């Protein structure tokens, strides 16, 4: 039963990781790529780490480190994505021509 | 159970190989930073799962370091793009 849960969580995480990587390659614009990158972490890395916690137990050596890595990723990755998007906008990276709104530029 | 862990680690490395395409192609610096940020996260996961697979606790520190300090590169590059050197 435990193994089944672990394998299912790993499959979910790897599916979202691969789809996020494909999105980073195929999206037309840096801002859309940033969105795919955050999906890779939130939906891809967290289920895999939860699978590790389920397999090893939350107070074991490996499970506790997996929980720590998950907490760090949850705190750090949105901040980094935000900083990259802001820097890209300020340094004048153009949006995709299909973009419909440019909110920071409106008065 | 150990087969699952090494399979996850190998899959993360394969995803890193996919992301290298964007790192090489990326038209602007920001694209490369996004790819690099994602690659470092996947690296941390791969090292973590390899640590569990090979049962060596010393690799756990590598994974923890990668997960906690990988964002510094992205932050420094973002600051450089925004305001220039220094």
Structure description:
The complex is a heterodimer of chains A (107) and B (86). Chain A is mainly α and 107 residues long. Chain A is 77% helix and 0% strand. In chain A, helix 1 runs antiparallel to helix 2 (30-56) and helix 2 runs antiparallel to helix 3 (61-90). The longest helix of chain A is centred in the C-terminal third of the chain and has 30 residues, at 61-90. With 86 residues, chain B is an all-alpha fold. Chain B has one domain (2-83). Chain B is built from 3 helices and no strands. The radius of gyration of chain B is 15 Å and the shape is flat. The model of chain B has no long low-confidence stretch (mean pLDDT 89). Chains A and B meet through helix 1, helix 2 and helix 3 of A and helix 1, helix 2 and helix 3 of B.
Mean pLDDT of chain A: 89
Distance between the termini of chain A: 57 Å
Helix content of chain B: over 70%
Helix run count of chain A: 3
Please describe the biggest sheet of chain A, giving its number of strands, its sense, and whether it closes into a barrel. Answer: none
What's the helix-strand series of chain B?
A: HHH
| Cα separation of the termini of chain B | 49 Å
Q: What helical percentage do the residues of chain A reach?
A: over 70%
Quaternary structure classification? heterodimer
3D shape of chain A = elongated
Using the CA coordinates, give the radius of gyration of chain A. Answer: 17 Å
- Poorly predicted regions of chain A: none
Strand element count of chain A = 0
Number of strands of chain B: 0
> What pattern of helices and strands is seen along the backbone of chain A?
HHH
Number of domains of chain B: 1
- What structural category do the secondary elements of chain B indicate? mainly alpha
Can you tell me the residue ranges of chain B where pLDDT is under 50 for at least 5 consecutive residues?
none
Give the amount of beta strand of chain A, in percent. Answer: under 5%
């Amino acid at each position: 039963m435990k193994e089944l849960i672990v394998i299912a969580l790993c499959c979910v995480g790897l599916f979202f990781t691969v789809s996020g990587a494909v999105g980073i390659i195929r999206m037309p614009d840096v801002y859309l790529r940033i969105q795919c990158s955050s999906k890779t972490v939130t939906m891809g890395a967290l289920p895999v780490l939860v699978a590790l916690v389920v397999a090893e137990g939350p107070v074991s050596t490996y499970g506790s480190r997996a929980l720590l890595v998950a907490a760090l990723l949850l705190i750090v990755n949105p901040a980094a994505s935000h900083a990259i998007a802001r820097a890209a906008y300020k340094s004048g990276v153009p949006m995709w021509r299909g973009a419909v709104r440019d909110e920071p530029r409106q008065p | 159970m150990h087969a699952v862990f090494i399979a996850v680690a190998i899959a993360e490395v394969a995803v890193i190989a996919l992301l290298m395409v964007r790192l090489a192609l990326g038209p602007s610096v920001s694209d490369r930073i996004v790819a690099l940020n994602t690659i470092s996260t996947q690296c941390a996961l791969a090292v973590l799962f390899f640590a569990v697979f090979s049962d060596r606790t010393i690799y756990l520190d590598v994974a923890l370091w990668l997960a906690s300090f990988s964002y510094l590169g992205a932050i420094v590059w973002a600051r450089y793009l925004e305001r220039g050197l220094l």
